[in-house]
Amino acid sequence: MLILGNAELRLELLDPADPPDQARQGARYCWGGYLWQVHDLRLGPLVAGPEFPHPTPTPFNGQGLPESFRHRTRDGRPLTWRGREGLGLGAGRLTADEKGEVSLTEPCTWHVTRGPGHLSFQTRQAGAGFSCELSREIELRDRSVISRSRLTNAGDTALTLEWFAHPFWCLTRGEARVRLPLGTTVPDNPGFAIDRDGLLTFRRPFRTPEDSQFALLDLPAGQALRLELDHPRLSRVTFATSFIPNECPVWANAQTLSIEPYLHLSLAPGETRAWQIEHGFEA
Prior knowledge:
This protein is an all-beta fold.
């Protein structure tokens, strides 16, 4: 593990070069800057996961505050693929078998550097006819965790993909209360409700890790996402994006809740895009 800490919080990040940490990762999440756990030095762990507190969750489910570059859309349309060869940005070269099952065949190499209050990760990748340079930075500032990403299309063809954050927040007594931007709505579903003040709550308890619900939030147009949620050991957790999400799912099971802002990216050769998200863990 890579450790980043101050007088109040300790961050545990998966080391992309360490074999035990590599075993926790797969083709879904970005390896560089994968934040596995946030510890309050007095109160203990502050984030969860779909299988939490299992010490070795499956790589697909993961834990903590991972981020992902989708190589396929949720409905299966290929993005960074050419035939059965794919490029998983932040993970490595991918292959798909006859049934479409994806495996990571060659992890990308990350260069990790440490600075005052932050860890930086850089990689250059190529595969399936695409090439890119990706940098990630995780900064710990007081009780805030800032995650920055910078992506450059280093190839000679357009690079089209989707990035999303997948924070796994703790539930409070098996429930969630999230204060979303005023005007946010969600289609009728058996798992979530949002009242007129923008408060998201569960319609029912989720009983097991397999018992889950997915829905797409309808956020107010033209706004970056800012939200607050209850936490069992803190006064509140805050979350904010530097960008206007293109879409935003919400997902939960019996162990965790996740609100997942998406950024749709289409970069011409030589084009660069940068963005960030910020988590606040208020004592």
